[in-house]
Write a structure and sequence with these properties.
Elements: E1 2-7, H1 14-25, E2 35-40, H2 50-57, E3 67-71, H3 80-92
Parallel strand pairs: 1-2, 2-3
Pfam families: Arf (PF00025)
GO molecular function, one term: GTP binding
Protein name: ADP-ribosylation factor
């Protein structure tokens, strides 16, 4: 299982975030892991949408991997439980 948090407001770092994310998921120990991405700071003007974050990380190119991207605002708690609920139900399968 992997939980990866992205600052959706920081468009300049998405390239670096992608490189780090791809290195993690290609690690032999992570090849079959379930992936949850939190696209944080969704409450801020100019933040990337969860779809933009997913595109930036290369999530849509992943084959044979279970993953989910959840928009969040960690300060308010928005989206956190929804993402963790997805993770919990996916791991039970």
């Amino acid at each position: 299982m992997q939980i990866y948090v992205v600052d959706s407001l920081d468009r300049e770092r998405i390239v670096k975030a992608k490189a780090e994310f791809q290195a993690i998921i290609k690690d032999p120990f992570m090849l079959n892991s379930v992936i949850l991405v939190f696209a944080n700071k969704q409450d801020m003007k100019g933040a990337m949408t969860p779809a933009e974050v997913g595109q930036g990380l290369g999530l849509f190119e992943l084959k044979n991997r279970k993953w989910h991207i959840q928009g969040t605002c960690a300060l308010k708690g928005d989206g956190l439980y929804e993402g963790l609920d997805w993770l919990s139900s996916t791991l039970k399968r």
